[in-house]
Amino acid sequence: MIFTWLLLLIPISLGMHYFLGLGPLWTFATAIVAIVPLAEWIGRATEQLAHRAGPAIGGLLNVSFGNAAELILALFVLISGKPNVVKAQITGSIVGNSLLGLGLAIVVGSWGRERQTFKRERAGLLSSLLILAMIALLLPALFDYTERGLAAPSDARRLDERLSLGVAVVLILAYVANLISTLCTHRDVFAFPTEENGAPREQSWPIWQSLAVLVAGTAFTAWEAELVSGALEKSAAALGLSEFFLGVIVLAIVGNAAEYVAAIYFARKNQMGLVLSITVGSTIQVALLLAPLLVLISHFMGKPMNLVFANPLELIAIAGVTFAVNAIAADGETTWFEGVLLLAVYVVLSMAFYLVK
Amino acid sequence: MIFTWLLLLIPISLGMHYFLGLGPLWTFATAIVAIVPLAEWIGRATEQLAHRAGPAIGGLLNVSFGNAAELILALFVLISGKPNVVKAQITGSIVGNSLLGLGLAIVVGSWGRERQTFKRERAGLLSSLLILAMIALLLPALFDYTERGLAAPSDARRLDERLSLGVAVVLILAYVANLISTLCTHRDVFAFPTEENGAPREQSWPIWQSLAVLVAGTAFTAWEAELVSGALEKSAAALGLSEFFLGVIVLAIVGNAAEYVAAIYFARKNQMGLVLSITVGSTIQVALLLAPLLVLISHFMGKPMNLVFANPLELIAIAGVTFAVNAIAADGETTWFEGVLLLAVYVVLSMAFYLVK
Amino acid sequence: MIFTWLLLLIPISLGMHYFLGLGPLWTFATAIVAIVPLAEWIGRATEQLAHRAGPAIGGLLNVSFGNAAELILALFVLISGKPNVVKAQITGSIVGNSLLGLGLAIVVGSWGRERQTFKRERAGLLSSLLILAMIALLLPALFDYTERGLAAPSDARRLDERLSLGVAVVLILAYVANLISTLCTHRDVFAFPTEENGAPREQSWPIWQSLAVLVAGTAFTAWEAELVSGALEKSAAALGLSEFFLGVIVLAIVGNAAEYVAAIYFARKNQMGLVLSITVGSTIQVALLLAPLLVLISHFMGKPMNLVFANPLELIAIAGVTFAVNAIAADGETTWFEGVLLLAVYVVLSMAFYLVK
Questions:
Q1: What is the pLDDT of residue A55?
Q2: Residue C185 pLDDT class (50, 70, 90 cuts)
Q3: Nearest residue of B to residue A178 by CA position?
Q4: Which one of A313, A341, A344 has the shortest CB-CB distance to C146?
Q5: How do residues A186-208 score in pLDDT, each as one tens digit?
């Protein structure tokens, strides 16, 4: 498995930074790629624990640690005082999972098949969740736009933060309601690959091993995330890119790369329902859980981050994802051309993110 | 029936205002609650008349008096020179019926049931109507935004009004076309509770009684509405709320409370098609009939109100309702979680309305 | 056939301009109407060639010359230095085909029928394409809006153009991918009337005749288009209309009139799938092919036109079309009332276009 070999990047990136001193760009590049296998190992350990704990606790575990690497990375960027990069990372996760991840999976999955199908019901629930999450997520930015003309800047900032906190609480409650709904009806929209779904299951680990991997994985992720956030500014300058672009494209892809691989794997196995759950479900988790958690944590850390996306392009990107996923999911089948359309929207948005100053 | 007891509020509110002089907040609170049973009695009398008159005239009667209380309330607020509060009331009706009313009905109705179903066709027609109405309703505000940068303020105002009048006429024509379509095909999207639908029918009234209740109900509603509009400004100040917030939340809920109760009643009876017709249908009536009627009446009264919603949040709220209802209605079934999502959107919007200055 | 008689307008319009000198309004009016039969004859010749060439090459021919008249007209307006009128024409084509064309066809087609049906799958693919195209088409304008506040005007213009070029290339690639997808799966979303579809087929022409009609039709269209673009400014002044309005309503209708007639024809034959393909498919062709081609050609001509729609109303119109078509197409059936709704949206948008300065 390639993810095991990629773990070698951990000592390499640490060595480069602390001993060789090759400059921030090398640190950034190696540390960011090292997070990919770490995210995958955290996921694997979580699954092992979840498997032992039964569906109820297992679901909770999966939720808590499913986005652990992404959350840690975002927290370190936040601590280094760059809330707009964190928001760009949130936008990028939403856009990347549903356009890049789903688009790639559809294109790869439809190779040699005329079309692939999935159950409409699941797609319908995902669409509903997506739309409601998007309205809530876009509201603070539109509120800010309204308010900026009417109130003093400091007042507006204070009101923005209050609204963001309120929205965060409502989103997390909606997420909890969804968990309860899932546990009650056993109709899991955030499906995780399991035996029955055809994932190649390794032997199950003893509990101490799962816990050890979890702790070690989280600790190393934090270490690498610190390197990434420290080298972000200088790397952006060295590459001639904006920090915004690094956040919205690079950081977002890194935090979700393991999910893209899983989505492509199941698309080849012709399990499109699972593909939708992984990619769109992951987008929804970012909107309903990761983003509000970051708002709340940042508030208690004393470095409050609101939900006002700084760049209007982020709004059109988030709204566009919602409509594109709706259109693709509505008919219960996918063709390679639909995958190409999703990738085309991703490319077009990336171009705009690249050009914007 | 609680609505009968609430009628006691009529003498109480009048007494408070004219004899006790307890201050505007007491007047406002009692008068506004007194409108709830009045709206319900006007509705009951209308139904009695409609039942006798046959479907064609009956439908017209239902349409004309279905929103009578809401219209009267809006007219008195308009006369007192507060068009922006009236527009807030329109927004609030749209948002309240489709998010609060439908959300509550779904949550209450799904108690003890895994899911509830309805016919997709009806939902599809409601969605189409909703989308058309929303485009037409949002257009004047976007026109105003475009125009404001280009023309002189007085020119812009004149153009806004011309466009609003034109839009109002088109919306009313679309409403009439819908009535004709309904009468021809006997497929009533604005269903009203009838015997066959399982409503507990009281004995039918003689015509003179229906007419008497209608006239008295309308007259008392006007009286209470005058009290409400007179006490609006001071009540807002006393409560520390904006008039905008009172309009968009309080006035809107009062005008539609009877419909919420009916929606919840039929949701418990598992008649979700009727629930959709009542809540979403009511939203559509506000957009296609109430709003344009107010534009036309205000024009002839010499206090012209245009359709330019003053607050950009109103636009996102109206657009958000459209997308949320579409997402919920698309799959032909509802679960309690979908109800929670609708309520979550309502809460989030309310927070923004509360914070905006 | 009325289109044959309308060809008489060609000598009339040329005569008026070069001999009688009746003024620009007469030139404009006759030249613009003369383009209608020319577009129809180019289409007829293309079909004849396509019929002989087999589906693969035939499809390409249809695509290349299907919008020939529209493209030629736009190019001449572009050469005369009016990119905003060309963009208005693009908007008008999008709006006109999907609202006016489809609306008229539905209303006429449903005469004497309670409802008409079509296959949902085709409508689903059209909707997906429409949404992608709209996101891509609206992006440059939102980018421009973002950028204008941050960069110097000349920088913003340069960035706008780069983004527009990039978007144009992606759109054309998506169009090519769609062609390939169509050829592979033989599921043609851009259906053209063929024998089996019940079109009244004339005798097939010899190749030389088809080529001659194609060349002559294109040449005369160019000639008339030059007259139109030359007389545009003075005609607008004489009529008291803005050039924007002429572009968005008049030029757009002229370029697509032949398609409206075809759509109405097939609606009467109860072939609603074909009607959707002609009208919505034509809208998609404008967005995926005509608009990006104009951006690329204008770039190489040295008179670059970007994709930043000048008027915010164009954005709401384009987005509105997408949602309206989605709503109408989602349920797989049409009633006359849905046609009326589409026409109502068109009327409302036209009023706004008329009033805007």
A1: 63
A2: low
A3: B337
A4: A313
A5: 454 444 444 444 455 556 888 88
pLDDT of residue A225: 81
A61: three-class secondary structure by DSSP = helix
Whether A320 and C135 lie within 8 Å, measured CB to CB: yes
- Reported as a single tens digit per residue, the pLDDT across B107-139 is 999 888 878 888 877 777 788 888 888 888 888
Number of alpha helices (DSSP H) and beta strands (DSSP E) in chain A: 15, 2
C177 shares contact with chain A (CB less than 8 Å):
yes
> In A, which residues are within 8 Å of C142 by CB distance?
312-313, 316
Round to whole Å and give the CA distance between C270 and B204.
Answer: 46
- pLDDT per residue as tens digits for the range C200-248: 555 688 888 888 888 888 888 888 888 888 888 888 888 888 888 988 8
Query: Do C36 and C225 form a contact (C-beta atoms < 8 A)?
Result: no
Distance from CA of C147 to the nearest CA of B (A): 18
Judge whether C327 is closer than 8 Å to chain B, CB to CB: yes
- Give the count of Cβ contacts less than 8 A between chain B and C: 89
- Please tell me whether residue A333 adopts helix, strand or coil conformation: strand
Cβ B345–A162 below 8 Å, yes or no? Answer: no
A117/chain C closest Cα distance in angstroms = 13
**Worst-scoring range by mean pLDDT, A315-329, B181-195, B267-281, B308-322?**
B181-195
Whether residue B339 is predicted with pLDDT greater than 80 in this model: the reply is: yes
* Cβ of residue A187 closer than 8 Å to a chain B Cβ: no
Q: How far apart are the first and last CA of chain B?
A: 39
User: How far apart, in whole angstroms, are the C-alpha atoms of residue A340 and residue C125?
Assistant: 13
**CB of C89 closer than 8 Å to CB of C248:** yes
Tell me, letter by letter, the H, E, C secondary structure of B124-186.
HHHHHHHHHHHHHHHHHHHHHHHHHCCCCHHHHHHHHHHHHHHHHHHHHHHHHHHHHHHHHHC
Contact C327 B132 (CB under 8 A): yes
Tell if the CB–CB gap between A341 and C146 is shorter than 8 Å.
Answer: no
Q: Which CATH number fits domain B2-355: 1.20.1420.30, 1.10.10.10, 3.40.190.10, 3.50.50.60?
A: 1.20.1420.30
Mutual angle of helices C272-285 and C120-148, in 10-degree steps: 20
pLDDT tens, residue by residue, A12-25: 888 877 777 777 88
For all residues of chain A together, what is the average pLDDT?
A: 82
pTM for the whole thing? 0.87
| Pick among A134, A145, A146 to test the B interface (most B CBs inside 10 A) | A146
Contact criterion met (CB < 8 Å) for B345 and A159: no
pLDDT at A1: 61
Minimal C-alpha gap between B100 and chain A (Å): 14
Domain ranges of chain A: 2-355
